[in-house]
């Protein structure tokens, strides 16, 4: 299996404003895009992405990455937790053919430990289905008391293999049962203890869970209605109809691979790790009556590192292409992506729709100036966050377990020593323990908590609000500051928010950390909680 089959996915929103440039620039952009597509197709790369963030993958939910998380275990800094989720919008009551790890899809979590944008460790999950009795339509023929209960009719087995860049492969889980889905109290009583916890495996010092969980991402997806942020007064919120924020992903499940690994197993000198997840399918699929056959090379169809990149950064014409390339190719394709990163469309929209000023916008036209083909000449803060990791341009105060600490200019937050710019989540494994805030902030680093997003990503991190604030320049003075006329307005912290501040169910304090899969019997598709400032 070659490196081209392993890549990342992003979350982003299309760029209609990107095409308001001159006709000549658009023709150049289109020509370059066509050239890149041709190169990728010639290399057998395909497309796709997550939470319906790119056109091709939106039609293939079984292979669709939704989120990637990486964080140091809070009570044990010697362990790092890697989580990737797939199969968006799993309705818990989605029977009789419930969701499962899908045969003919290969699911991966990748780790780069030397900054070269190539995976040094890859964790590959493959699966198979076994039906005990094909004469019944039932998923289960009685209550399930354990993963190997004989009443589970359609069983989902998986194998997990660790691959290294050097070519070694180690089987961590060998054809073991994933837990069944959480149907309800009749079919899956005591789900957490009898089914979820019973399907946790260990291999040496690595702990593994692979199965259905609650979807940990929380967001009001009405943000895609021209950047509407419900709960805010118009024009940012709605002037008519419902203006109450709703967690659009509440009540839905995903399938998640959760790994807890000793830091020393992954780190090789440099303490910064880069993490992303992908999925692959065979290049050929042949359908016949009641059957399908898969063959050919494995092709990457989904990729996800940093959240919201492919949804709201990558333009529509490049979403599918971006999802098919590995991080090692990001720099080669950067001429096509530079505007999206260094003059992000969300910033253009915030400026045009709501008058939010942008750094580097010297002519006040709601565009940050940059030099084409010269990386990091526009929004250096966004470039660093997405592509290289962060080094402070100015001092910054963080909140630690022992009180506030000022980090000096030049402090390396999470940039590898020999970094090749590439999109992925980066985490400094040495920023942990007492360097974390005593009260973790949902705004991560922007809230003064150095152990939060975008230094890794915890389940609780409010990546929607963090991303909106970052695009508005909340980190600009700390990471870039070449435009000394720009000052971020802290009042925007209460304005640039979708007002969904937490997940609809609680995360687990211990492994596997994700919320327990929602029950088909008891779930509801609306997060009724509201931020404190909206409560009466």
User: What is the number of helical segments per DSSP (H or I, 4+ residues)?
Assistant: 10
Count of individual beta strands: 14
Low-confidence stretches: 1-50
Biggest β-sheet description: 7 strands, antiparallel
Distance between the termini: 57 Å
Based on helices, strands and strand pairing, what is the structural class? alpha+beta
Mean pLDDT: 89
Radius of gyration: 23 Å
Report on this structure.
- The protein is 15% helix and 24% strand.
- By secondary structure, the chain is of the alpha+beta class.
- Strands 3, 4, 5, 6, 10, 11 and 14 form a seven-stranded antiparallel sheet that branches. A five-stranded antiparallel sheet has the order 1-2-9-8-7. A two-stranded antiparallel sheet has the order 12-13.
- A hairpin with a 2-residue loop joins strand 10 (272-288) and strand 11 (291-304).
Short description:
The protein has helices spanning 23-42, 191-196, 263-266, 309-312, 319-323, 334-342, 345-354, 380-388, 463-471, 476-479; strands at 65-72, 79-90, 105-112, 121-131, 154-164, 169-177, 201-203, 206-214, 253-262, 272-288, 291-304, 396-400, 403-407, 425-428.
Descriptors:
single chain; 536 residues; alpha+beta; seven-stranded antiparallel sheet; five-stranded antiparallel sheet; 10 helices; 15% helix
Helices and strands in order, then pairings?
Elements: H1 23-42, E1 65-72, E2 79-90, E3 105-112, E4 121-131, E5 154-164, E6 169-177, H2 191-196, E7 201-203, E8 206-214, E9 253-262, H3 263-266, E10 272-288, E11 291-304, H4 309-312, H5 319-323, H6 334-342, H7 345-354, H8 380-388, E12 396-400, E13 403-407, E14 425-428, H9 463-471, H10 476-479
């Amino acid at each position: 299996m070659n490196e081209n089959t392993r890549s990342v996915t992003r979350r982003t929103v299309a760029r209609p404003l990107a095409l308001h440039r001159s006709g000549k620039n658009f023709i150049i952009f289109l020509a370059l895009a066509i050239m890149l597509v041709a190169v990728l197709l010639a290399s057998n790369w395909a497309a796709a992405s997550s939470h319906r963030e790119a056109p091709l993958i939106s039609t293939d939910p079984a292979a669709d990455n939704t989120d990637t998380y990486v964080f140091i275990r809070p009570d044990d800094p010697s362990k790092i937790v890697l989580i990737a989720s797939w199969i968006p919008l799993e309705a818990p009551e989605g029977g009789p053919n419930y969701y499962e790890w899908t045969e003919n899809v290969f699911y991966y979590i990748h780790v780069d430990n030397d900054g070269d944008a190539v995976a040094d460790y890859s964790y590959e999950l493959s699966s198979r289905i076994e039906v005990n009795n094909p004469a019944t339509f039932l998923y289960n023929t009685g209550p399930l008391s354990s993963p190997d209960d004989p009443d589970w009719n359609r069983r989902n087995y998986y194998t997990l293999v660790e691959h290294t860049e050097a070519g070694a492969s180690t089987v961590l889980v060998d054809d073991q049962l994933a837990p069944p889905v959480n149907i309800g109290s009749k079919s899956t009583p005591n789900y957490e203890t009898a089914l979820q916890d019973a399907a946790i495996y260990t291999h040496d010092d690595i702990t593994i869970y692979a199965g259905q969980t609650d979807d940990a991402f929380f967001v009001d997806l009405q943000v895609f209605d021209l950047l509407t942020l419900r709960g805010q007064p118009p024009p940012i919120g709605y002037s008519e109809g419902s203006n109450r924020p709703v967690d659009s992903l509440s009540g839905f499940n995903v399938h998640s691979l959760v790994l807890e690994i000793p830091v020393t197993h992954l780190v090789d000198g440099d303490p910064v790790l880069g993490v992303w997840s992908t999925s692959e399918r065979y290049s050929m699929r042949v359908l016949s009556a009641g059957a399908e056959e898969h063959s050919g090379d494995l092709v990457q169809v989904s990729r996800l590192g940093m959240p919201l990149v492919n949804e709201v950064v990558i333009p529509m014409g490049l979403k599918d292409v971006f999802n098919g390339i590995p991080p090692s190719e990001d720099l080669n394709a950067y001429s096509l992506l530079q505007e999206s990163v260094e003059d992000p469309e969300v910033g253009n929209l915030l400026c045009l729709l709501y008058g939010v000023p942008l750094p580097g916008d010297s002519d006040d036209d709601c565009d940050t100036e940059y030099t084409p083909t010269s990386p990091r000449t526009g929004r250096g803060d966004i470039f660093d966050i997405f592509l290289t990791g962060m080094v402070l341009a100015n001092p910054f105060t963080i909140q630690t377990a022992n009180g506030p600490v000022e980090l000096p200019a030049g402090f390396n937050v999470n940039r590898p020593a020999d970094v090749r710019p590439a999109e992925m989540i980066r985490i400094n494994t040495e920023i942990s323990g007492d360097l974390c805030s005593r009260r973790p902030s949902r705004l991560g680093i922007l809230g003064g908590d150095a152990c939060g997003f975008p230094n890794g990503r915890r389940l609780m991190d409010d990546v929607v609000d963090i991303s909106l604030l970052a695009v508005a320049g909340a980190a600009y003075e700390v990471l870039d500051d070449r435009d000394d006329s720009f000052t971020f307005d802290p009042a925007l912290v209460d304005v640039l928010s979708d007002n969904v501040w937490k997940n609809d169910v609680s995360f687990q304090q211990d492994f596997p950390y994700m919320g327990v899969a929602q029950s088909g019997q008891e779930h509801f598709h609306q997060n009724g909680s509201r931020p404190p400032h909206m409560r009466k």
